[in-house]
Amino acid sequence: MTKVNQRIEILFLYDVSFNNPNGDPLDENKPRIDYSTNYNIVTDVRLKRTIRDFILEYKKMDIFVKEERKENKENKELKSKEEKIKELGGNSNKESLLEKFIDIRLFGCTIAVEKNTIALTGPVQFKFGRSLHKVDLQYIKGTTVMPSGEGKQQGTMTSKYILPYSLISFYGVINEKAAETQNINLTYQDIDILFESMWNGTNSLATTSKIGHRSVMLMAIYYKPGTFYQIGNLDHLIEIKSDKKDEEIRKIDEYILTTDRLIEKLTEAKDKIEKVKIKYIPELKLSKEIEGNEILIENFNF
Question: Can you give the pTM of this predicted structure?
Answer without folding.
Answer: 0.90
